[in-house]
Amino acid sequence: MKIRSCIKYADRYIYKYSIKTILIIVFAAVYFTASFLSPIAAKGAYAFYLKPIKHSTGLITLNEAYMLAVNRNGTIKAAKENYYRSTLLKWSAVGMVLPDISLKYTDQRMHENSAPVPTEFTPLMGNIFLFFFPNYQYSFDLNEPLFNVGAIPAYMAAENTEKSSKMSLNNVSAGTLYNVAVDYYTVLNDISLIKADHKTFEEAKAHLELTTAKLNAGLAIITDLLQAKSQFYAAKQELISAKNKLKSDKAALASLMGVSRHFMVVKPKQPLFKKTGLRKLIVLAYNNNPGLKSLKFAQKSASDQTAYYESQYIPKINFSASYNALSNSHFIPAGSTNFWTAGATLTMPIFQGANRIISIEKTRSEANEAMYDTLQEKRNLKSQVISMFYNVKSLKSQVGTLRHEEKFASKNFTLVEEEFKAGVATSVDVVTALAELTRARHNLLSAKLDYYESVLDLKRLIGSFKRKLIDMKIDKFN
Question: Domain 56-100+147-317+345-471 classified CATH 3.10.180.10?
Fold first, then answer.
């Protein structure tokens, strides 16, 4: 009996304390759950949590972006193929003075037509062809131009065409590097814009929380809360738009570089505008702009091509020689089976119809067209350099002004926010100050991007990206 009572008492003890343990665990779980959900419930419907901007581990500097574009961009590769084809034209001109050597070999069987012997079995049989005397022959022929003046202007025209194609390749490459630089700084500007809009969003959220607290305390009206919510959602939309713009601009930059758009950019040095005189910039543009130099070579190429067609009136002299050999002299008993021939040929063109005249006039017209294009391009280049020079100076001053404006707008918003906390200013004043601060931030970032693009455009006009190709050891010919 004592043992049973002890067991019964132990069961009651274990049951009693196990229920207490379970109740304590449930109470603790409810307490921690309530404490975790209470801030979310207090925030209400305007709760919005920003996810951190995730980047891949791939870092691409501006110089690496240049290298990727040069090695992978399809437009540059197509221009390289065009340049390669132009290098083959010089060999066509060289071939006009190189010898022409050919070998001719013939293997044949000669036959003799013999009269048939009439028999009773072949009364209607015709002549019998008996094949014999196997014979082969071969000959070496040599044709060497001794005097061909047209090869000189043809070679010069091909050389100028190659240089013009090379300048076109440099122009395409420099333009691509310019686009890469612009898109690179645009991506950096988008990141700065996201940071600015995120800061604005946090300020709008803090103001909304403050307005909600004041409304609960009876120190604000429902209109203040609605205005704060409107500004909060406007800031949220600005932040989402900035993120989407970053994705779009990164895709454009990735397309130029020929890589996946999952990469991270590194902030380079700002493309500052050095103090250089306008006259010096114009001279640099005349000397280094690839587009202008390409037109100059195109004009020289057309002029040399005209000289080539005009040289067709000059006589040509060719030396020709041949060696012939036969294996059987059955049918030429009185002749020699091996013999040499040699001699010179004079070709004097007298009249060749209208083709040569038309070719001359066409090339002259092409030379004149290239000359007019060069003159106009030179004028346009000077105008662009002057316009971009003063545009850069204006944008630089504008950036300084907007930087002060953004600083003053930030101070004003801080002051108005403090006045609203003290009950001196209204929610309308805070919302207005925050809108002015957002506009000032956006205007400053937009002006900075315009300034960077203008500086890069001016550098492109004066041939800085052409020199960058040489510094990067990509342009190995000029």
Answer: no
